[in-house]
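User: quick one, fold this
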Amino acid sequence: MLYDNHIWQYHHQLPETTIGAELTQDQARVIAHATIAEQFNLNPTDITEISATSAQLPHRKDWLFIFSEATIYPLQTGQARISVAIAGDEVINTARTIHVPEEWERTEQNRQNMLNIFTIIFALLFLFITFIALYIASQQNKIFFFSKQLFFVLFGIIATLLSIDIISTWPNIIGALNTSLPLNNQLFQIITGLMISSLVKAIFYASIICFIMTKKRFHYLSHNIVTLGIGICSGLFLAGIFSIVQLVIPTDKPLWPEYESLCCALPLLTHVIGSIAHYAQLTIIFSLLFILINTAWQKHSLFFTAFATLCGMAMLDLSSLDMLGIWIIMGTLVGLVMLAIYQYIIRYDYALIPVATGSFTILHIAQQGIFNAYPGAVLNACVSACAVGITSALWYWYMNRKTQ
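Assistant:
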C-alpha cells in the first residue's frame, strides 16, 4: 500500500437537535487536550491555543478549539494547526490543517488570475492557428471512405460503454440531487440530459474513429513483429520524453493516485472504461494531428512546424508564469519530437498511431498499479491494461486488414 492505515481525520456528524451536555470552556478544553494527546501524541504544553468558540444549540452547547503547532512547522509563512470540534461532551471532529495568511492568499490569487488570462490568450491563439490549419487542409483533395457498417458497430460499442458507465456512476448522481427540489423533476432532467449527451458522444466519437480507420493511406509498412515493435517503441519513447519534461518543469501538484473509480458502484468496469476512453481520445488527437500535417506538409512545412510546437505546449501544464520560459522551451521540444516521429515513422503508416498510443496509455495504467493505493488497484490496472492492449490490437488490425 502507498499509504499506511493511520487515521488522518476523525469526523462524526450529529443532528442539531441531538440532546447533549452544556460544558464550560474549561471543561471542554480538558476534553480537547485529552483528544490531542490520544490521537496526535502531543503534550498540551507543546501547543498554543488560538481560539475557542462556542455555539448554543437548542439542547446542547458545541465548542470548536483551534491550536497551533509551532515546533513542527519550520516555514516562516503559514501555521500548522489542530482543530477539535466538540458537540456537548462528545468529540465529533479533529483535523490537522495549515493556515495560510490572507496576504499570501491574495497574492497567490492574483498570480493565478494572471495565469488564467495567459491560458485564455494561448487557447484563443491555438484555436485560431488550428482553424487556419483546417482551412489549408480542406483545400487539398484527399480521398477517404466512410463505412456505414463500421460506424454503426462503433456507435453500438460506444453507446454500450457509456450506458455501463452511467449505471456505475448512478449512486453519485443520486447523491448529488438537491433535497429541496422535487425528486421526479430532477430525475427527468438528469435522465434526459444523460440520454442526449450519450447519444451525441456516441455519434461524434463513432464518426471520428470511423473517419480515422477508413482514411485512405498511400504508404504501408510490412505487417510483422518489427513494425509492431516500432509502433510500441514510439509510444514508449514519447512517454519518456513527457516524463523528462515533467521533471524539468516544476509543478505545484503532487503525483497523486487516481481514486475516481472507487466512488462508483462498479469500480473495475469504471476503471476499464475510463482507460479505454483515455486511449481513444489520445489516438484520435494524434491521428487527426498527423493527418492534418500530412495533408499540406510539402507546401506549408514551416507553418505546420509552428503548429506542432504549439501542440507540444498545449500538452504541457503551466503551473506559474515564472515557469513560462521553461514551458515554451519544453513545449517546443515536445512538438519537434512529435514532428520527428511523424517525419521518420508515422507518415509511412498511420496504423502505427493506435499501437504507439496503446503503449503510451498502458505505461500510465502501470503507474497506477505500481502506486497500489487501494485494495484491488493492481487488479484494476492489469485488467485495464489488457483491455487497452486488445483495443489497440483490434484498431491496428482493422486499419491493415485490407492490405494483408
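User: anything notable?
Assistant: Strands lie at 10-11, 48-56, 61-68, 79-87, 90-99.
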